[in-house]
Structures are given as structure tokens and as C-alpha cells.
Structure prediction request, 423 residues.
Amino acid sequence: MNAAEPMSHMAQAPSSTRRWPAAGYTSAPYWVFTDPEIYAREQARIFRGPAWHYLGLEAEVPDPGCYKTTYIGESSVLLTRANDGSLHAMLNRCAHRGNMICREPFGTANKLYCVYHAWSYTLEGDLSRVAFQRGLHGEGGLPRDFDPAHHGLRKLRVDTLCGLVFATFSDEVEPLEQWLGEIAHGIRRVLRRPLKVLGYDTQRIHANWKAYHENPRDSYHANILHTFYGTFGLSRQSQESAMVLDGSGRHVYFYTKAGTEKNGDDYKETASALRSHNDSLRLEDPGILKWHDEFGDGISVQILTAYPTFVLHQIANNLATRQLLPKGPGQADLVWTYFGFADDDEEMTRVRLAQTNLAGSAGMISVEDAAVCEMMRRAMGDGQEGESFIEMGGRDLESGGTTKLSERAIRNFWHNYRVDMEL
Ligand code: FES
Ligand SMILES: [Fe+2]
Prediction:
């Protein structure tokens, strides 16, 4: 190496020369969490690529004329329900000069109206009116051959499953249920009846979106990091539990059955050293731990993750979706939408809301997840050197089987990510 070479060149190879570690999907280089060029490529290849992205619940746009604004990656997106009851997804970006059409998170409208120059669109996203299209007194206006049919909002494909609404930029990706594969069972298990939204919580996480999205795929950490799970027994490694991946390895869910402990000596030995098992902690009001086995299968916790950024959780009787919205390489917004069923009685709604204290930005279980992601970001620094080690449960996409003491789902995440990103 030339001794006169500036330090910055030595430390920071341009991303075009980046190489994934030879270990492959058992290792993720830290530059993948920090590099702006990688982030831009993710927007094109994943968020605008062949994947389905969660937009919200059908229950959030219940009637004709209802709309919701949200994002897919960095793209501002509009979800509407048209007069015939059908759902539509489109870019929330005027076809004229790119202004945002709807600014509120939710609303109702009989047309989509851009304030900049008053172009309006139908709820399906077709251009219906252009202000001064023919000019005035024979002057100005659009060329005579202007065809409104070619100037609607950019439409996305939309598909639903059990009240969840997803959209994609891609014409090629398979229908939603096929894309989700085996994890559709985990969705059907929870979303059995019409839904009712109970509330929202949005948090800004100062970490790369993938750091958060390794987390709900990481069944290894769940009962180790989260004191509440281990100490109060909602989820422990010693309980009956399993991991279910779809055939592609993109999507996964885990479940645990509280009260099914098999405390062998090997469990006792490890658990005694875990900070998350703290026998001296007591709850002043243990009411939050009382849950009803409403689905009749004994599963106390099910965390389901769909590639790239969707989570559906059942923690006791608390039900929620989590939608992660990347906001640059170093931060992301996590939107928690809590819901119950439309036919829940008052008591059931009270239980679900009380157990909301377990989840969300300040949740007694979930608070540690964002904290760890932010600590990882600080520890990774600029990400120019170093990589993770992901061999819990083995070195293959299949190894680890269905045990939760495994990083199999994380290996599968990075495998699919690398295919999509051509890294
Ligand atoms: S930008 Fe929307 S009407 Fe001009
Ligand atoms: Fe967690």
C-alpha cells in the first residue's frame, strides 16, 4: 500500500467493489446496514421490486370513499375504497408535477384532488378533470391530443388476505396467498373474523430497517432479551414451541404455548444464568398475565413476519400488525396497529387494550427490541468493517429445523435478500 494514500481511501472502499463475506448467508457485513447506495438499491429491487408490501387493514377503509395514506419503502402510497366497494392502491403523487394528493393519514373523499393545479382523479386513480384543459379564450391549455387515459395515478396491484391489505409495484410476483405460502396458516389462525381497529402507536427507531427485521425472525433472543417473557412465563425456551417457514424461506412464524414447561437439567443450568429469568420480580397487578385461550390451541405467543417488513403478532390476547417504514439507511418508523374483532364484547376489548402495555414503543416486552437495534447501530459505527455470525442451529437454510434455539429464519432472510439485491 502506498504510504501516501489518504486514510479515508484505505478505510472506505466504494460500494461498487463491496464483497459479501465468503461465509454467505451465515454472515451479514455491517456495511449492508449503513451504506446509502445499498439503501437506494433496496428501494428499487425490494420495495419497488417483486414483493408484496403491507398497507393496512380493510377495516381502516371500511366504506366507499375511505382512503388511507401510507408508504411502501420511500414511496408515498394511497389506499382507497371505490364506490363499488373495491380496494385500490396507487402512488400518492400527482401525474402532473408530482405533488402529494392526500396529506391526512385517513379521510373520505368522492374524488382525489390535487391542490397545486386542481387535477382530479377518481377513487380508482383515473384522471377525471384537468383545470383549464382547453385554456381560456382560445389560448393556453393542453395540446389537443392530450389523452387523460394516459395520465392517471400510478396504480399498484392490490391483494388481501383475512382483512390484511398488501400492494406491489410488480406485475410478476405471484398472488399474495401464494407468496405467503405456509405462513398463511398463521394468519388464518388469528384473523378469523371481521376486525375492529383499537388504536395506533408509531415509533422512530434510529437503526437500519434490516436490524429491526432480523429481530422478529430471531426466536433465539426472545426469551433471553425480554425479561418479561421469561420471568412471567408467557414465552420460555422450555415450553412447547416451533418455527414455521414458507417454502421460499422469506416468511416465518413462531409460536409458544405457555404452561407447557419441560424443565430438564440443561434448561435449568442455562436459565439460572439468564438476566431475563428474575424470580424476585413481581407484578403489582398480575391481571395483565390473565389471558383467554381464544383460539383454543394453547398458543400464548405467535410472532409472524412476512418479507420484507410486515409483522403480525398475538401476544396473549393482544393483536397487532407492525409496519416498518424505512426513512434512510439509519432510521425507520414502526407503525403498530392494535385491533380486536368487531364482535368482541367490552371485557374482551378491555383485556386486549390492557395487554397493549406488553407491546409497542414502550411495551414491557417490545421496548428492548428497538433499544437493541439502536445499540447495534452505535456499535457498528460506519459499518466499514466487521460482520455478524449467524450459525445458531447450523450453517444451512434448513438446519435448525423447527426449534426456536436457531437462527435459521435469519439465514433465510439474508439468503433471499442477497438474491433480490444481487449481492
Ligand atoms: S401537481 Fe397536481 S395538479 Fe399540478
Ligand atoms: Fe424481541
Notes: DSSP finds eleven helices and 17 strands in the chain.
